[in-house]
Amino acid sequence: MSDVQNKPGGGRIEGGIDAIVIGADAEGLTAAAYLGRAGYNTILLEAGVEIGGAVCARELSPGQNYVDGEHLISILDPAVIADLDLYRHGVSYAARCLDTAYFFEDGETLQLGGDLQMAAAAFDDEEAGPAFQKFIAEVFEAAAFCRPAFEAAAAPESDIEKVMRAAPRNLAARLNFFSLAPAQEVLDAYLPDGPLKTALLCEAGFRSAAAPHEPFSFMTLVRRWAGEVAGLQGACAYPQGGAVAVVTALRRAAQAAKVDIRAATGVASILIEQDHAAGVELEGGGQIRAPIIVAAGSARRVFMEMIGAATIDIGFQRAITAASPQLASGHLHLALKGVARDEKTRGHMSRRLVYAPPREALRRAFADARAGRVPSDLMIEAVFPDVLDEEIGGDGMQLLSAIAHPLPFDEAPDADRRAEIETAILANIEKFAPDIEDRIKARALRLASDIAQSTSAPAQDYAAPSSIIEQVALARVAGSAGYVSGLYFCGREARIGAGLSCAAGRMAAKAALFEVKRGGRAA
Amino acid sequence: MTATFDLTVIGADEASFSAAAVAARAGASVAIIRPRKRKNMAASYCDMPNFVWRRLDLHEYGLSLERISARVTLGPDGATVTTHEGVRETKAALAQSENADHLLWADFVDDMKALEAGRKLRDAATAAPTNGVAGFSLFSGGVRDCAALGQATGSCAAALDDYLGDDALKTHIAAHALGPSGLGGGEPGSALALSEFFDEHAWRVRPDEDGPSLLSTLETACKDSGVEFFTKDLAELAREGARQVVVSLVDGEKIKTRYVLFASPGAAQKAGMGASVCPLAGHGAATAVLRIALKRPMPAATPDDKAVFQILDGAGDLQIARDAALDGRLPDRLPVEFEYAANGDIIVRTAYCPASFRDDDGWREWTGQDRQAVARRMIDQLASRIPEFSANVRKTKIEVIGAASPDRSPVFARSGFAGPGWAGIENVIVQPNRHNAVAAAVRLVDRILAGE
After folding, report:
1. Is the per-residue pLDDT at A2 higher than 70?
2. Are residues A330 and A317 in the same domain?
3. Cβ neighbours of A185 in B, within 8 Å
């Protein structure tokens, strides 16, 4: 029970709360659930009316929904699933380990099993096979080793250092190479030229602002392969009901942990008293007081608007406000006429489909997108959700969800620009699904600005993330929450890698709990 | 019997000799292998940082040096921007030209110099023969280190936008900071080149015309310190056991050594090794150096013959040029740098050439025609800024560093495991283009000898 008092100047002051979480996206829900489970009286405040942030179901045509924001799960933190009992709260996989079919410009195709280690072992090529096995083994080892660095945004510094220092010498040299080198150079060092290399080059540049020929870009792949789905490293899965099911499960977990979720409750400012977070002032005028505040959402909004530049360290401000993104990915969802019935076709469609442009085209695409032009060649990752998940099926229609990368980042693209982007994405989808244009019944193009608008966040929050090293550096800075004690941050700047992860929410909550245990000010 | 050395330096430039001399003075046994064809047209000015000067006691050799006087960018329509080594001097010059950024200049330079994370990253990228985790452990620094790391791994354009407002000044700095390595300014990691540019030792000096040349002085210093010279071409490098490299020379002589150092990508390429021209950025671009002998001395329009000049229309041209070079094309507006040699010749450089060319039939190697085309374009660029320049050209000579065969140098690419800056064999280290090759080479040698 919370105590409610009348504040002299109107509004109410609410006390008796242990923790406030601002922003009910996946990270915020995760943090709230952790705090709730630890027995803290927790309130989760969401400015919008929807719970779940960018990941939600939207209608494409009557009876046919698509999942906005994300369509696959690849770097979801396994610790969150275990700690919050997400399987019990409804997470299950419609496709546990998706095979990938790569399509190339020359019409060639390549299929890789979802279990990359097995796929490498079974790779049928005299030269590339053993090289691929060595590559996977060495990158997987490095990726597993780096995992703490990718989640430990707010963790005590000594932890990461201890882990990193413990690296054996040959692994250390490899980590050095992997973290600094362009993906292209690493792949050249391991693999012979061929479709496999083109495919992996594409994976390394996918959804990242670091082009595969530029420094630090190999880390994008290392980060992805540090992820684990259903116990399988580097895999991709499609959850029953889509990525939105994960968010729903997180919400249930939070509710089960007795978190008080309040939608349509915007936070105007965070109260700082004697350099310690003391509570929040609501947009409606009331106050809620609590010794722990976890903020999800945009760092600019949290620190520059809710707290104010005057209270925040200058270096910290620079770090969170410096970047202006140039690249973004675009999501295109299509409702297609006619449903494939025969098993063989459905088998082909139950994969992750990737169009991988050749090396030079990819380089040009990044250069074009960075210069603000829509590239003619785009990497495409597509799935047919209704083939993967029987429950989605619309009547007589097929759903296709695709992510295209790299696109120029626009704060507010006009209609012409949107049409240009849509045409470019469709042209690239046509390369592996010919004549798809004629079957389109309904379409939804979701650019960074659209997704941002639905969560009332700035568009740049949904731009392509910069190089992983930059992200790790920024996450460590953002994790320090501007040196305001009692405040923990798990917004975009605290996340590393593209995709639904929830690690930042977990780490923010863990940091808060750690601080309390150590005898900081708390309930 | 095969001679055995701790360190073998391959190359015949100032950076190689300085590195060898410093290593020998520190007690290592050192060999220098210099190719028999000694051609060093690129060197006019050379970096000679104070600390190397002192460690080699160069004043005892009767050497005197003059400093670069200024860095100048010749923009379109006769606009120029000039900066000096001294922060105050530049600040005053900016204030005089009513550039609002003079207020921020000192802070900007300080912040760039303080980008310690940048130095660590560069060091990790260049060579870390035994302690590879050096680069990665940057993650484990404090929050402030991380903020600096974020800045250093970001783009040059973002760092400049963060501090400065004037486009001409930003173009000027981008041109001088990125020009030598052929970076575009928008890519991750290009901020590193910026921080290195402001590193205190990045200013170059040139020996007095009458005194002994720097190179011959360094050669003497090497011999005085007991460095052994082999004036022969390199035939092959091979690894023997876990810790030794066998260097085979053309006449069949072999040297065993612990480490092999190429102090510049040019040295590596002359020895037939693949080399990366850009720090961190891998291969893909080449550097062209053109020496122009003039019919008459330059007109008084450019009296400052001790400055380094860049010709660039706008900062965006760097990125366009880099994209073109990586795409296998020669950029239309080629950013060039030039300076005067001691004898009045003009030395023009550009790092924005493709490593190999791409046309309708696919990739192909450099041809004599390409060299001529580059030379022409470089002269055109100068002619666009200096009146009646084309008519004044008497003789030209061009050299291309970093040109690669389309399928890439086998040593470089098929290394099994190599880091950037590595030549593919463990303990063979190739230094990419640096702002200050001598300082970088000497620091590298220090780290190698310290067992890092």
Report:
1. no
2. no
3. 282-283, 420
